[in-house]
Records
---
Amino acid sequence: MGTKRIIRLQFFLLLYFGTSLWAIDPGRHITQYAHTAWKTGDGVYVGSPTTITQAADGYLWIGTTLGLVRFDGVRFVQWKPPAGQQLPDPRVFSLLGTSDGSLWIGTGYSLSRWKDQQLTNFPGLSGRIEALLEGDAGSIWLARTQITDSMGPLCRIKEAQVRCFGSGDQIPFPNVLQLAKSDDGSIWLDGYSELCRWRPGSSEVFFPNRTGRPEGIALFKSIATGPDGSTWAAMDSPGPIMRLLHFIHGNWGREDFPKVAATNSEITALFVDRDNELWIGTSNRGMFRIQGSRAEHFGEAEGLTSNSVQSFCQDQEGNVWVVTSLGIDNFRDLPVSSFSMRDGLAADGAVSVLASRTGGVWILNNYETVQELKDGKFSTLLPQRDQPAHHVSTLFEDHAGRLWFGLDNGLRVYDNGTFRTVLHSDGTPLGLVFSITEDMHHDIWVRAGPNLDQIVNFSVQSERTSPKIATSYILAAAPDGGVVLGLVDGELLKFKSGETQSSSSNENDNRRQIRDLLTDPDGTVWGTTLNELFCWRGSRRETLTIRNGLPCDGIFALVEDDDNAIWLYSRCGLIRIARPELDHWWQHPDDLVHTQLLDEGEGVQAGLTSLKPQAARTPDGRLWFVNGHILQMININHLQENMTPPPVHVESVVADELEYSPHEGIRLPALTRDLEIDYTAISFVAPVKVRFRYRLEGHDADWQDPATRRQAFYTDLHPGKYRFHVIACNNDGVWNSTGATLDFSIAPAWYQTIWFWALCGILGVLVAWSLYRLRVRQIALAIHASFDERLKERTRLAREFHDTLLQTIQGSKMVADDALDESADPVRMRRALERLSIWMGQATQEGRAALNSLRDSTTKRNDLADAFQRATEGDLMPGTMSVTLSVVGAASEMHPIVRDEVYRIGYEAIRNASVHSKASHLDVELRYAQDLTLCVKDNGLGIDATVLDKGRDGHFGLQGMRERAARIGGKLSLVSSATSGTEIKLVVPGEIIFSPKQEGDGVQERVRRNRKYDRP
């Protein structure tokens, strides 16, 4: 079962089984109900209203001459049919809300049904639909006039099947204007000048002017049935008498009521409310309500929108709605009743009220008229007939029921119809009387003139006066025999047995005057100033203000109810403080006090008067107040609590200024930024006090409290599915915890979709994997580079040892071999050993130089020419070879590492020529230009092409020269032939080898770049 069906079920359960929880109090006058009116001229709806009903969802529907209007207590909304559909006729004459949630609409042409956002028309039914009625088992009955088809005036719709009844079904007239249920299950039919009680197969007709039948049946909408099963009908009776017929227990009776004016006033509508009270609408005299034998009237003069009444309706909370030709009127009960001149007050100037021991109240009006209200009737005590008015200053009733009052400049007593004057012993008046009380010994104390007088047996027994007494304003009796005076400066004085006790006020402004006093049996004194409620107990005085929880300041009067709770009459309304709260506050003065407030919405019209008492309690527990204009009453023992939880609805969804129908599963477009959800809760008792809570599941972590606001706002919601849940409570705090829900979703943009984020995730994984692989590769390359560097270093060392130490050792071996060949020649042996020693020494130096080259340059000096000259002048060169060393250009500063590599390449070329070429001449040329060029050329045998290309196994000379040249970014070329010898040429770019010392690091970096660039 859906949420809407649950709400409808709750609605009808409350409507049919819980009606006693809340209804209009029949004991009040119409003028004492809260009355609200909406006129067509106010612009809240269009068209003239014709009928009204409440649907199962709680909404009020108003039929007008221009269509339908929906009302939730706050907002009128013009109903619009779905696109492509419309009512057969915009003029609506009848409406009916049924238990299945349907709204049946009777127009001037046919019938329609609105249910679940679907409009269904019944084109086969013609004529004007005058009345609608829900029958048994979900059947719908309708009355028709102006019929153009051949079917009868009464029709029934059941399970979408239509059947009409006419003369052949014992319906005696061609048109039916009104329908009503009978207590025996039959239907009452109104046919202009006759009535019929009908059921399929039988009928009973009541014609005028026939013996035993009622006469003069009214011509239009004149029938109604009540909860007791009785039926009311109106008679057309011109003149000063309004005549009604009452059919009860199978018999007709007649009730006659005087009209408000002796003018013709046709009865247009009858309605019986839940309390079986009869309401009557007329064509030009407003409306009446029948109470017993009295007809109460309410018309335009009292505030009705028009004197032409069309129809009545009572909603689920008991409020009565009246449709007139010019508007809609609402009458609802209030906790606080008001009495004004319309109800019998002599004047709208009630300034003091006093409870009578006989159950009535005394009211002082305009300081001169004293009235008694008892059993709902007002009577006047003062002024007496044919006597001038006098100024009355205060009222008091003693234990014997005698009324004491200050009159003009003295004190009077009213007892059993006689008046008596109290005077001083010298015969002078007491003076202007401010306050009167009676102590536990039944002595009367009067604060009059400058004195405090004690009166025993109508004689002044004692007089007290002082500057403080002269400033006292209010007087109260203490339960221990004394009296308490309240002064204008906030001080309290207590007189008992000749002793005086005082309590000062903590206030220091002009609002400190004590306005009212109340004493408890234990001697506690309660009082008010305009700012506070205070309590004086023993020697201690505490103050309760807005700081401790009072809803407002401006306290005018106080009174105690039967439960010992204190009621404060204040500028914001009636404030009730329970006795346990007061006891807790006395023990903990700094704690907040919990209060209950009745304000204007409950009928309170608070105001300040200058006379006392301003509040009173009658023996039946009712509390009475005056505000300077009217008399007000609250019967706290018979307060009705509104136990009907308000139906809650989501009305519309507005997203980025586009409105959507609140159906389930709304899909909002992507990038929706501003979202507004309008909702409502339907309670007509006090719609402005309906409170809400809502939560957007998927966004809100907890319930939001917008108080009475009926919109929820959200911005920049993320894509996804949401559920909006709203609940509400009525004016008495009864919550509809089921509330209403709305499911909707916001579509994602392309970059908010799942596949986009999945793609981003995959891409992220790929990027992470790529970065991981890159990092692994970098680490591998670094490791390989380290290995390569070590290999290169080993290779360099191999070259060094090959080009130096190994060559020298090889030369030494050759010397030794030569010496061994001629071992018998001592001279030659000695010369060979000397040469071997030289070679071994050179091998030692070259080994040391190779080790030092790991840390420093082999050639300390920068001049390569000197280095090559030393290489050609040593024992390395055979004696048969001539050497030419030429230097072209000026020597330049060179990078030491590059310079050493050039030297090693040149040295290896010179050594190879000296050892292997068998040449007779060697040219060594060193050219300094833009680049450095080294050329070593001999005229020997040349180098075999295979050796030149691949080198000789076990020898690394040529390979080492190529590696060194590649390392420094140089270009090495070897040209050899058997006829022209061998030429080895090395060209090193100047930007690599020539550089200032201060740019050595940059040169080294450029060397590394070239090495990297030239590597195969």
---
Amino acid sequence: MFKSHLKIALRHLIKRRGFAFINIAGLAVGMACSMLILLWVWEEYSYDRFHEKADRIVRVCARGRIGDTVIDQTSTCAPLPGTLMMDYPEVEQAVRILRGNAPVQYGDRVFVESGMLIADSTFFDVFSFPLLRGDRRTVLSAPDACVITQTMARKYFGDEDPINKVLTVAGYYRFRVTGIMKEVPANSHVHFNGVFSLASVREMSANDAWMSNSFATYLVLREGFPYRSLEAKFPDFIRRHFGPDESKIISAAGNKWEYYLQPLTSIHLDSHVTSELEPNGNRTYVTFFILIAAFILCIASVNFMNLATAKSSLRSREVGVRKASGASRLQLVRQFLSESVFTVFLAAVLSVGIMELAMPAFNNLTGKALSLGSLAGGTTLPVVLALVLVLGVLSGSYPAFFLSSFKPVAALKGQPSEGAGKSRLRNGLVLFQFSISIILFVGTLMVHRQLVYMQAENLGFSAENILVIRNYSGVPNRSFKAALRECPGVVISSGSETVPGYPFRNMVATPEQWKEITLDWNACDCEFLETMGMRMAQGRFFSRDFGADTSAIVINETAARLLGWKDPLGKIIWFSGRPLTVIGTVRDFHYESKLNKIEPSGMVLLGSPGFTENAVVVKLRTENVPETVSAVKALWDRHVQGTPFDYGFLDEEYDNLYRNEMRTEKIFAVFSCLAIAIACLGLFGLSAFAAERRTKEIGIRKVLGASVANLAALLSYEFTQWVVWANLLAWPVAWYAMKRWLQNFAYQIPMDWRVFLLSGLLALAVALLTVIYQAVRAATANPVDSLKYE
């Protein structure tokens, strides 16, 4: 029986080759797109779940308000984890982590390592990063110990055995290699090349100030203990342990300070606070892509069902012959359902081939390293088989249950009408398809406009042709900066602790009203303002003509507004026990991405206690940039020997803040176009079917004098009217979805009605181009051939 059904299915596919190709290819592309997106979604949800204790690991974060400054950060103080373990037996283990970058040297090999972690000896007790050599219980127990990855080991030691070899970090610290680990999995919320013992950095690990926040703190809770129960004990913990100075700050009117916990497995998608170890994903984007996958699969499935039911209505005579030959209704139902399931199965097999071909491009688009091997395990195969069965049954239900009900005599006399109800159903499905496509069009345009706004809108500084040398800290010979002034391609240069696009330190300050606030701090030299292209709103910037500027501060406009200072010049802000005099207000600039609001910030002169010159910022002339970079590197190699030249361009590095948004835009654009293409593929097949059914009508109309344009318009109207209605259905849904998405941004574009109109016109134009070909082809056919058509 099955063999007979399979033969019949193959005969029909071969007989209607063009139609079968459209039907199978459309569904296969839709299934492939959906599965690729779901692979990406699965990867996003899998972050940090490879750790053995993943369900018990939490990260401690701090949030509060100091004055009018709101704080929400991952950074916590040095004494926190040890005190928590002493006070609460439900905390089994704890580790402090600090991310850093510094030159690392072995012999004559020197590299700047940007992926370094400085951590407690308990690091490998908390996390399950796989070790190739070394005992995870003792590998970091020595104060000078470090564990490096295989890649880092090959880079420094080649074929030598790295164990017990010594690496020099930042020209001062010496670490002995005690372990080798595998590369950090891609689905980890933090990536690194090596872990170095925190015990070597005594000035940080032994700091007992409760408001000096530098570390990311992770805890392992007792099995079965809910983390919310520990959170409830934090207010009492703060009251008991914070010293008098810290208590004075957080007990001032309106101030507050609290700790809260984040489950490890939720960090990647749900944590968007300051001082993250690296940029995270976004649950909103994951939800959007799940919807896109569902939309594309719906469009492809609707296409398949539409085309399958349309063509099956031409098989009424076949049903009559089979019934007259003794076939029962149950046999016909089995046959039609078998054919439909078989066709869907072919599409599913083809979709696997499409995924294999598209995987490299998809990985390049998403920045992942996905493979089809991820589909082999778990519930994926049963889900795909269930999908094949459901689609096959749904698309085959019309011929199976409707056509099989015809009486043999009625079926043999001619093709029974499919009825207005079935036509309305198909039109409704076309309406549904294009509504989804228009929603995706709107989403693509809105994401693009928001990204352009964030990148192109005035940042408050000029990032163009700005070269940033990132590893200037610890350089003993300061002649390099002086030599830069003589370099022909250099306009001006400056030194600073940090630059826009990199974190600013957030620390408490006390203005002269004695109301504590926190400021985001930077230290720079007198040329920083001109180099960065910033502008003053009031007063002046630092100058070598004023020796007292070593006790001066320049604040931004947000800080002035926060303090209520219309004229801030001459006001005093106390910081670390020192009075700083406000000499100017710089216009607000976006030193973080536009996902975040501009916070109050202050700049002091380099040389101030507690600040380090970490970077050199160089403004280059627009012509001959590569030659100028080479010249700057030659100066670096001459004046800063033994330290590699580690540089980047500020505009490129600032754009990295929008990495997730840029990938979202690309994915939206690619899959929106694919969704429209799949919908048009189905529309092409339906328009061909409609033209075929009206062949005689077209011949009669041509004989009676109808022009080609009239006939083309007649055939096109049936489908394009539903695209117009689809706009009216899609616009409210798209408006609501994009309004919700824009809430992720502190600075956002307005909802523009022209975006919705443009999306609708694009969808209509694409639909018209799809249908018009079949319409013109039918209208230009010889009417004699049309009237002979059976």
